[in-house]
Amino acid sequence: MHSLPELVSYSPLLGIIGDLVRVRATGPGLGELALIEDHDGPQSVARVVALDHEIVSLQVFRGSKGISTAARVRFLGRGPSVACSERLLGRVLDGAGLPIDGGPDLSLEPQVPAEVGVTVNPQRRVLPSRIIETGVPMVDLFNCLVESQKIPIFSVAGEPYNALLARIGFQAEADIVVFGGLGLIFDDYHFFRTQFEEHGTFHRTVMFVNQASDPIVERLLVPDMALAVAERFAVEEGQRVLVLLTDMTGYADALKELGIAAERIPATRGYLGDLYTQLAQRYEKACDFQGAGSVTILTVTTMPGDDVTHPVPDNTGYITEGQFYLHGGMIDPFGSLSRLKQRVIGKVTREDHGPLMNAMIRLYAEGIEAQKKQAMAFELSDHDLRLIRFAKLFRQRFMNVDVGMPLTKALDTGWQTLAECFAPHELLVKQSILDRYLPKTLAAATEGGP
Q1: Is there a single domain that holds both residue 303 and residue 211?
Q2: Does the residue 2 lie in any domain?
Q3: Which residue range(s) make up the domain with 393?
Q4: Are 74 and 4 in contact (CB under 8 A)?
Q5: Total domain count for the chain?
Q6: What is the arrangement of strands in the sheet containing 55-60, beginning at the earlier edge strand?
Q7: Cα separation of 88 and 182, whole Å?
Q8: What are phi and psi of 149, to 5 degrees?
Q9: How many angstroms separate the CA atoms of 152 and 205, rounded?
């Protein structure tokens, strides 16, 4: 970036702590960008992260190495921004909004502020009423993803949460996918890009990638840039936008590290007291805009030690509208919840959706109990054996994250699986539903038992 001599500069620096520098200045605002110039060295870009009367703390994007206390600081009078136009589709940018894919420069494209800003007036929001089919049966059949929903994937390290997130990204019914990677290792970045390219969705995808070796301050900008672009496409272009963010625990850890450098007083487990606010400001960008498009937010939240009471998943659960719980390479039906699924099940989906879902979950829970009886060498009835068989088929055909099928096929497969294991009267479903959807040949074969 070139120098801006018309702007007031401040010197000297009061201190340098890690990648944080302090200077005495009047007028700058929180989140404002600045240039740090040190003798004949290159300029460094920084962002205001704390204000204490006239003491301004700035996080240096590329680190403070080589900066002396004699450096001068020029505030730019604006916050970060990101290019946003149709030419952004199919591009990969870093956490500063700069292309890293070798493609054309985007500096002359229209810019939008990369900041949270205010949320949408509730009177301009449309009540969620449309399902987003993902091709993942444990989502579509049991915990529907609803347009304009905000929902995380709760998981632990080592689980295939990135594979699940990528699958939903290229299979979901969305016009545009905006991906934000927070502290990704290169292999994960390459995986996401390759998946979007191989499945033919890269041309309608925008990727913001902050790798583990990149500056932490850029990690904090990725969600804001992704959401700013998503909101612009939804409001001005009327697009159905799906935002994918991984991993929000990394985002919270970056906030914590920045707070420690700024000498802020920590709260629970070292995280700052405004963690809930910081997360909520991003998640609340999910919206179905009246007379325009929508923004749906799906994130990953890893739980250190599989502890759901950890501050990040704990705060996230209060903000979002449910969660998908990934455990043992499968989406666990008992730990997962979509609080908006009742707005679409049986209303925009088939009439048998609700009865089938309830019957399968009930029988799977009974199957788990039967497996416990079997493990403890209790005597098993014929019904127990059918429950155990059903639980095994349920995990194979639905719970595994590698399983993919459209919702209609998932519904039909659900009825087929029930009919293979149980007689119609054992399902506790209305006869009119059974007459219409339960496979007749299989139902007749199980009428008298296994």
Answers
A1: yes
A2: no
A3: 353-446
A4: yes
A5: 3
A6: 9-10, 72-75, 33-37, 44-52, 55-60, 20-24, 13-17
A7: 19
A8: -80, 155
A9: 20
